[in-house]
Specification:
Keywords: NADP, Oxidoreductase. This protein has helices spanning about 35-45, 60-70, 85-95, 120-150, 190-205, 235-245, 255-265, and strands at about 25-30, 50-55, 75, 100-105, 110, 155, 175-180, 215-220, 220-225, 250, 275. The protein has about 280 residues and is of the alpha/beta class. It has a single domain (about 25-275), classed as NAD(P)-binding Rossmann-like Domain (Rossmann fold, 3-Layer(aba) Sandwich). The strands form 3 sheets. Strands 3-2-1-4-6-8-11 form a 7-stranded parallel β-sheet, with helices on both faces. The protein has a two-stranded antiparallel sheet with strand order 5-7. The radius of gyration is 18 Å and the shape is globular.
Amino acid sequence: MSTSIPAQSAPSEPQTKVALDAKVIAITGANRGIGLGIAECCLVNGAAKIYSIDIGEVGDDFESLSKRFPGQLFAIQADVTQEASISGAVDKIVEEAGALHGIVVNAGRTNHKAALDFTTEEIQALFSVNLFGAFYTARCAARAFIKLGINGSIVFTASMASYRPNKVCSFYPPHLTSYYDGACHLPPYGASKAGIRNMTHTLAMEWAPHGIRVNSVSPGLVNTAMTYWVPQQPDWEQQLKYYGGFPRLAEVQELGGAYVYLLSDAASYTTSIDIPVNGVIGIC
């Protein structure tokens, strides 16, 4: 460790309120799905501005949330698989908002098929977004935090698929591929998310001297446009009996509390952890 890095002192007044008052937060893949749910929770809990960094266009749900919080929700188009693209997005946020206090590394994709059926191109595309893109995003944010002198927070979206193997669902629409998280995932998705959890611990240790906290959240099954079909499976009730836990999928807003806590100053001594939010079910 470089001796030029100043030692971090404790906050003069540790915060006990879990809130994001006046904070500027960026969220990758937040034009819809889990990312947009996180954005809503951040805004409800006092965030000054939320920026979605996404490769796609915004939809009706994003526009609706923007109307609820006028002048606080913005979208920037960027490709997480290209570090220069993410760096440009972060620079634009800092230029417009004057700061960046936290980033949620949420953009991801999955492909619903058996491991033996994946092509080389499909595996590379999945890892390019889920793992390499996550690393690029975190590194761009860390550089911005250091330059601004801000003790920033990085929160990765991992997955319960990083903890244990998946059960192949009895059926699924073959066209389902996402650029955001939340579905019944198959390998190599779980491997990419296990890499996220390991990267969380490694980066937390490396960047702690800069006052940067790095954590992750592992969602289980979440109700998004990608998972409408999950409760329609013929054996869904049997699956619930087998796995136990809450007999339903989570709503995207139900994940937000974990992210809000990790982004807030109340978590000023919390780093290198993963918070599972899975209702016990975790994997279908």
